[in-house]
Fold this sequence. Notes:
Structural class: alpha+beta
Largest sheet: 4 strands, mixed
Radius of gyration: 29 Å
Number of strands: 4
Strand content: 5-15%
Helix content: 55-70%
Number of helices: 10
Shape: elongated
Distance between the termini: 20 Å
Strand order of the largest sheet: 1-2-3-4
CATH topology of the largest domain: Alpha-lytic protease prodomain-like
CATH architecture of the largest domain: Up-down Bundle
Number of domains: 2
Amino acid sequence: MQIANKKTSVAALSVLSNSVLIALKIAVGLLIGSVSVLSEAIHSGVDLLAAVIALFAVRASGQQADERHPYGHGKFENISGTVEALLIFVAAVWIIYEAVHRLIRPRAIEMPVWGVGVMLVSALVNTFVSKRLFRVGKETDSVALQADAWHLRTDVYTSVGVTVGLLVIWVAGMISPNLNLRWLDAVVAILVALMIMKAAYDLTRDSARDLLDVSLPDQDVNWIAKFVTEGWPEVRSFHNLRTRKAGAYRFVDFHLAVEDRMSVALAHALGDEIVVAIKLRLPESRVQIHVEPCDYGCKVSCVSGCLVAENARGRGLGEAELDQPSGRPPKPNRGGASGRH
Length: 341
């Protein structure tokens, strides 16, 4: 509950800050006639919508699993991040359209110093809020908060770009009043839009990946395999590892083969120990282990992760015999013990 409240409070802060910045940017943009400032207002408008979506997503994803959602509500955050990214694309296209129109029909920019002031305020506010979003997003592994943070971080970069453009126009106007640099405002707006598109592409890729149940990062998958095979001498085979992610939740399942004389109680205890150890390394994990008996009557699926292959070959098993019982009397397979944690 504490984590959920922390995520909700920082998402609400993003909603509040974006609302204030939108009002300031629209007022100043209309006052001085700057398309780049107005484009930043549009950008902040998209940020506000993204922040509202993120707020909804972190609230929804924090709900406990239920009958209709037995795996929880984590993918609300992935959907949120994907929608936020698509919204950025829409805003970028609109900004480019307005900027091109302003290049064709340029307007004089009055009092650019006001634009410089509001852009600096925007950059400072978004730097502060994005840092908090990044920190909480990484602490809680929240896709929605990290996507919102990237929204605001992009806004910081573009605000600085607009500030530089307005400063050049302002200083040039004081040095040489007849020098026409009105086109620079529209060019900066186009550059802003291109930066936004790049951020949108990255967000779409990262957010939509987990919607397709892509495996966890290679470093996590490799760690799980190495940890289980090297840290637990009772394990005879480790195979069928599958992983995926939904929001902040990781799902891991795999098969373990253990000595066939091991009792169900000991096999279950072994599984519990492994689960606890994995969760220490990978928080918010849901781990499911299927335990199978190893009587050296090797099957292809088990051989793929066999940790006693040399022992099995030493018993005279050839490739054609891997699926056959060994010289040891076969035992009826009543299915392995399995547990979900």
